[in-house]
Amino acid sequence: MDVRSQISMVFHLDKCIGCHTCSIACKNIWTDRKGVEYQWWNNVETKPGTGYPTKWEDQDIYKGGWEKNNGTINLKGAGKKKGLLNIFHNPHLPVIDDYYEPFTYKYLDLIESPAMDDQPTARPVSLITGKPIDIKMGPNWDDDLSGTPDYARKDPNLQDLSPAEQEAMFQLERMAFFYLPRICNHCLNPACVASCPSGAIYKRGEDGVVLINQEVCRAWRMCVTACPYKKSYYNWHTGKSEKCILCYPRLEAGHAPACMHSCVGRIRYLGVVLYDADQIENAASGENDDLVDRQLNMLLDPFDPKVISAAKQNGVPDSTIKAAQYSPTYKFVKEWGLALPLHPEFRTLPMLFYVPPLLPVMASLSEQNTSQGEKMDPIAKFWNDSWLYDTSTEDLWGTIDQARFPLKYMANLFTAGDEEKVKVVLKKLMAVRIHRRNVTVGDIDSAKVEAALNGADVNPETADEIYKLTSLAKFDERFVIPPAHREQALEMLEFTCDTKGSVGFGFKEKPVRGL
Questions:
Q1: How does DSSP classify residue 502?
Q2: CA neighbours within 13 Å on the CB side: how many for 15?
Q3: What is the CA radius of gyration of the chain?
Q4: Prediction pTM value
Q5: Exposed, middle or buried, 450 (CB in 10 Å: 0-12/13-18/19+)?
Q6: Would you list the domain boundaries of the chain?
Q7: Does residue 11 contact residue 352 with C-beta atoms inside 8 Å?
Q8: Beta-carbon count within 10 A of 359 CB
Q9: What is the H or E stretch that residue 355 is in?
Q10: Contacts of 138 (CB under 8 A, 6+ apart)
Q11: 365-476 architecture in CATH?
Q12: Which residues contact 422 (CB under 8 A, 6 or more apart)?
C-alpha cells in the first residue's frame, strides 16, 4: 500500500449562482499578462451548453484523456508514437476560435469623439492583432442561454438522450439550466503529465498539485491535446504552456486559492485525501460502469491505524494526516457519497468532485408521474407518490426520476452513464432537504420524513452534518489546508548540496525568492 496525500476539491453545484467572481479573481491574479488574454484557468459554464473551449467534452474532436485497448490504457491523442507523428502538425488542438479571440474596446473613442448627431461607440479591438474585430464568441458566451439552438442543443452530453427527452428539456415550462465551474482537476492519472515530450509537467509529491516548469517547457503543446478538460493553455507570447496552479503559493501560506476564497455562493471546499497510489492503474483501467467505484475505493480512511502507519512510513507528515481527518472533501466524497467526478470515462482520476444539482421541479410533473407510478419499483414509486408537486407545503419536493434534468444527462456528466449512482446522490440530497424542512417548519408528517431518510440510507444525525457543512460551515471548515513544511525542503537542499555549490539531480543552486 503506497499511501500518499492529495489536495482535492468539491464544488456544490446547487449553490453556484453563476456570478463569475471566481473567474475574475483568477484572471486578475494569474492571467492578466500578454499572451494569456484568452486563458481562463477558472471558468463557469452554463449546462446544457457547449462550454469553453467549444465542445471540449467531445474527444472525437480533441482526442484527450486515456482510452482502454486490450486491457491496458493509452493516451488517446498523444504519447510517444502519436506525439512523434504529430509533433510538427497536431490536428487535434483547439484553435483560437474554439476559445475566442480576446478583445477590448477603444474607450478613447467615447471620450475624444467630437460633438455629433449620432451616439459614439467604442469599437471592439483584438488583443492579439490590435485590429477591429466582430465579436463572435466569448468564454461564457452561452451564459444563461439554455434552450438555444446554437449552444444548449449542441451539448455533447445530450447524445444519448432520445429526441423526445431532448425536446422535453427545452419546453418553456420545463426549461432549466445550472452552472458548472471548472478548474484544473489536478488528476491522479494526469494525461498532460504523461504526454509531455519535454517532461516539463510534473505532480508535486507533497500535495499532488500538477505544475508546468516554464524553464523546461518547449511548447510542443501535447498537454493541450492530452488534457480532456482542456485546462492546459498555450501562451502565444512566451511560447510556453500554462495552467491552473491551484494558487499553490497561497496554499503554502495557509490561504485558500483565490477562486475559492472569493466564491460568493460558498460552493467550494478544499481538503486533503489519502489514497493508495498502487491502485492508480487498476482504477483507471476499469469498465465505464465501474470507474467511479474504483476511484472512490482508492481513497483511504484517514482514521484507520494501518493507513496512518503506512502514510507515516511514506513520509506523510502528521499535520497532513490530521488535515485529512478533518477534510470536508473526504466527507462529501467518501463518507457521505454525495460528490462525483466530472467525466470519469476520461480515466484521468480527477481530484475535483461535484455535488450534482438538485434542481427544482415543476407542476407539470404530477400528471406524468401519476400515470407512470404503477410501473416503477417500490422506492421510485414512494418518491413519486409521496412528493408530487401541488400547492401544499408538504409536497414541494417533486420527484427524482422526472426532475427537470433527465438522470441520463446528469449521468453522462458525472458517472460515465450510470443513472443509478446519480439517483442515489439526488435521493440523499432530497432526504436532507425534507428532514431539515421538518426540523425548521415541522409541516411534514414524521412517518414520511423517516421513510425518506430510510429510503436514502441517511440517518438524522448525518443529515444534520450534511446540512451544516453545506449551509452553515465556517471558512476553516470549508478549507482545511495542511501546513507547508518548508523546513523539509530546505533540509533537502542542504543535504544534496556538494562542496562546489551545485544541487543534486543536476540543478544549479539558486537564491530562494519570496512570493
A1: B
A2: 18
A3: 25
A4: 0.88
A5: middle
A6: 365-476
A7: yes
A8: 17
A9: strand 352-355
A10: 100
A11: Orthogonal Bundle (1.10)
A12: 340, 356, 407, 410, 411, 414, 415
d(CA 445, CA 443): 7
| C-alpha triplet 214, 216, 222: angle, nearest 5° | 90
| Secondary structure (3-state) at 313 | helix
Give the residue from 329, 309, 205 showing the smallest Cα distance to 256. 329
C-alpha cell at position 281? 492503474
**Helices marked H in 132-190:** 163-169
Distance CA 318, CA 312 (A): 7
Whole-angstrom distance, CA of residue 41 vs CA of residue 45: 13
Beta bridge partners of 145: none
Q: Measure the CA–CA gap between 151 and 381, rounded to whole angstroms.
A: 35
Return d(Cα 291, Cα 415) in angstroms, integer: 8
Cα torsion angle, 318, 320, 324, 328, sign: positive
The SS3 assignment for 192 reads helix
Q: Tens-digit pLDDT profile for the chain (515 aa)? A: 899 999 999 999 999 999 999 999 999 999 989 999 999 999 999 999 999 999 999 999 999 999 988 878 999 887 767 766 777 778 889 999 999 999 999 998 888 888 888 888 899 999 999 999 998 888 888 888 777 777 888 899 998 888 888 877 787 666 788 999 999 999 999 999 999 999 999 999 889 999 999 999 998 999 999 999 999 999 999 999 999 999 999 999 999 999 999 999 999 999 999 999 999 999 999 998 899 999 999 999 999 999 999 999 999 999 999 999 999 999 999 999 999 999 999 999 999 999 999 876 444 444 444 444 444 444 454 444 444 333 343 444 446 666 678 889 999 999 998 999 999 999 899 899 889 989 998 888 888 888 889 888 999 999 999 999 999 999 999 999 998 876 666 665 565 554 444 433 333 334 333 33
Q: Name the one residue in this structure whose C-alpha cell is 504519447.
A: 79
Helix (H, G, I), strand (E, B) or coil at 269: strand
- In a 13 Å sphere around the CA of 392, the CA atoms on its Cβ side amount to 8
For residue 430, what are the contacts with CB-CB under 8 A and spacing of at least 6? 358, 383, 387, 397, 400, 452, 456
Contact at 8 Å (CB) between 49 and 158?
A: no
Which of these, 194, 190, 219, 210, lies nearest to 90 by C-alpha position? Answer: 219
Residue 481: burial class (beta carbons within 10 Å; 0-12, 13-18, 19+) = buried
3-class DSSP assignment, residue 81 = helix
Cα(first)–Cα(last) distance of the chain, in Å? 36
